[in-house]
Specification:
Distance between the termini of chain B: 50 Å
Helix content of chain A: 25-40%
Shape of chain A: elongated
Strand content of chain A: 25-35%
Strand order of the largest sheet of chain A: 7-11-6-1-4-5-12
Strand order of the largest sheet of chain B: 9-8-7-10-6-1-4-5-11
Number of helices of chain B: 6
Order of helices and strands of chain B: EEEHEHEHEHEEEEHEEEH
Shape of chain B: globular
Strand content of chain B: 25-35%
Helix content of chain B: 25-40%
Number of domains of chain A: 2
CATH class of the largest domain in chain A: Alpha Beta
CATH topology of the largest domain in chain A: Rossmann fold
CATH superfamily of the largest domain in chain A: HUPs
Largest interface: A-B, 96 and 82 residues
Oligomer: heterodimer
Structural class of chain B: alpha/beta
Radius of gyration of chain A: 22 Å
Largest sheet of chain B: 9 strands, mixed
Order of helices and strands of chain A: EEEHEHEHEHEEEEEEHEEHEHEHEHEH
């Protein structure tokens, strides 16, 4: 079976998102033959952004140049991605597992009549099937799933795959119609976006590094200690439920069962004891560091590296060392 | 407003995970299944809307094996849902998310549905495919990662926000549509004892899965638990500066995750 892969591009500013690039890298690895990986872009700036695919060696980009798609729900993209997948004779559609990609995947799988999986961390193609690995139960277990058929939609877990190297090409642009969107897909309106409260830093679920503070920080006035370490690392700031329940930081900071689930490359827990409530939200992080004054805190059971000590001494020293090493 | 809320029984969060004897799934022996996380938020949202819009009804729909599926339906009725439908999968849970969506879609299509609510994903398989797939199957728009869902009666539209990587998007949408909810940032209600007792006798409509495997095109081949964490490697130090230097060196040279 020839593996022909369509990568759906998500654009941030004028660049492809990190999740899209990771998907593109994986697509190239799955289909080393030339010309077997094609791109897809939608919206006002589709054609302009096609060069971004070209930077990574994609020879053909399908564009739905319909400005109304920019403010439409993700669902409105399913018809044009389906049309592009059909026209390009794709066997796999890959998309980064962001909120965009995951919302698109389910819709697309029905419309294109494909088998699908999300949160994918490994892909092994077979004859008439694909085998994928994906974390389940909040990262506390891993499932190997066999998808049957000749059409597959996969949303890849962010940060699970490396970024591709550049290999400049001049892609051919192919137009694809945005499809006859039913009136009900045109009716919903996005009326605004309120940027994430953390300002310049990366978002919690998107960040490669997360620094979270807990009850051990003792008061809202001390929380900037945690934020300074995060800033030095270019990390997102999180918090345990104790912190958000006490109102030291907004609920949107909360990592855990009733908050956000994160899986960064590096997670640093500062003054967090490690209640199961918190653990399920961060245990799938690649490397976990815990800083706590209590050597018997349960957080040290799930951490890879631990420092037992006074966070009010350790964290400022760590911030200074990080700044020194990163040349800040 | 006719509201349909789709829920799924999942193991409670504190469950100690074990693989089944054939190694392909969670061993359900002794596991307590509950209405959890995102689904609890979906039920709470449905009830808040019902209270805000006179004449509304909430119909809860769940798919899965006995007895866990019936239990979460009764739990939803105890919380305030009016009617329940159970898509019975026999003794085996259906694990292909799209087969689940097709079976649920068929059940929902047979009910009046101005608004279909579900959790953005389930806490066991973490797929998040069912909500968007339901939108396509019912030929209505779908929105994922939704918080703050309200009904604007004057303008006859839903208003809500979506928690995306870029921030909180504000949206307006007419009905019908499918909304997949993020965990509520407010506390879902708990059922009162008289309601729990009453829910035990509530009628539950049954739908049959056809074909028996729901047309599944994926199956789990292996369910693995990570090797037990051996506990943190502790950084030994005399001064905070030494601790900081050692940790940074470890993160750069050993763990290779220093940004």
């Amino acid at each position: 079976m020839t593996t022909r892969i369509l990568v759906v591009g998500e654009v941030q500013g004028s660049r492809l998102s990190g999740a899209t690039l990771e998907a593109l890298g994986k697509a190239r690895e799955l289909s080393p033959g030339t010309g077997e990986v094609v791109g897809f872009l939608a919206g006002r700036s589709a054609t302009a952004a096609a060069g971004e695919f070209g930077r990574y060696g994609v020879p053909e980009v399908w564009c739905a140049n319909d400005a109304s798609l920019d403010a439409a729900p993700v669902a409105a993209l399913a018809p044009s991605v389906t049309a592009a997948a059909e026209a390009a004779q794709a066997t796999i559609v890959l998309v980064g597992g962001t909120t965009f990609g995951r919302d698109l995947a389910g819709r697309l799988a029905v419309r294109w009549n494909a088998a699908a999986a999300t949160g994918v961390t490994e892909v092994v193609p077979g004859d008439g099937f694909l085998r994928v690995r994906r974390p389940v139960f909040g990262g506390r277990a891993t499932e190997t799933r066999r998808l049957e058929g000749t059409r597959f939609v996969l949303a890849l877990r962010p940060h699970a795959f490396p970024l591709p190297t550049e290999a400049p090409a001049n892609p051919t642009i192919r137009e694809v119609a945005s499809g006859d969107l039913s009136a009900n897909l045109r009716a919903p309106k996005r009326t605004g976006v309120e940027p994430v409260a953390t300002g310049a830093g990366p978002t919690l679920t998107d960040a490669a590094t997360v620094v979270s503070g807990g009850r051990g920080v003792r008061s809202p006035e001390n929380f900037p200690l945690v934020e300074a370490l995060a800033a030095a690392l270019g990390a997102a700031v999180g918090a345990s439920r104790a912190v958000t329940d006490a109102g030291w930081r907004p609920a949107s900071y909360q990592v855990g069962q009733t908050g956000k689930a994160v899986s960064p490359q590096l997670y640093i827990a500062v003054g967090i004891s490690g209640a199961i409530q918190h653990i399920v939200g961060m245990v799938s992080s690649h490397v976990i560091v815990a800083i706590n004054s209590d050597a018997s805190a349960p957080i040290f059971k799930v951490a890879d590296y631990g420092i037992v000590g006074d966070l009010f001494e350790i964290v400022p020293a760590l911030t200074a060392e990080v700044r020194r090493v990163r040349g800040l | 407003m006719e509201i349909v809320v789709c829920v799924k029984p999942v193991p409670e969060a504190e469950t100690r995970l074990r693989a089944s004897s054939d190694g392909t799934a969670l061993d359900p022996e002794g596991v307590k299944f509950v209405l959890a996380g995102y689904d609890e938020s979906a039920v709470e949202q449905a009830l808040l809307l019902k209270e805000a819009i006179p004449g509304s009804k909430v119909h809860v729909v769940a798919l899965g094996p006995a007895p866990r599926t019936e239990e979460v339906l009764r739990a939803s009725i105890a919380l305030g849902c009016d009617l329940a439908t159970w898509v019975d999968t026999g003794s085996v849970p259906l694990t292909d998310p799209l087969a689940v969506a097709r079976a649920l879609g068929k059940a929902v299509a047979a009910l009046p549905h101005d608004l279909v609510l579900c959790g953005k994903q389930a806490g066991d398989d973490e797929s998040g495919l069912v909500g968007p797939a339901l939108g396509e199957l019912l030929a209505v728009p779908d929105f994922g990662y939704v918080v703050d869902l309200r009904w604007d009666g004057a303008r006859s539209c839903l208003t809500f926000r979506r928690a995306t990587e870029a921030g909180l998007e504000a949206w307006e949408s007419p009905i019908p549509c499918v909304i997949a909810l993020q965990q509520a940032w407010n506390d879902p209600r708990t059922a009162k004892l008289p309601a729990i007792l009453k829910s035990r006798k509530a009628p539950i409509a049954k739908a049959v899965l056809d074909p028996p495997d729901g047309g599944s095109r994926s199956r789990s081949e292996r369910f693995e638990l990570p090797p037990p964490r051996t506990g943190a490697k502790m950084v030994e130090y005399k001064t905070p500066q030494e601790a900081a230097e050692k940790l940074v060196r470890i993160l750069r040279e050993e763990a290779k995750v220093f940004p």
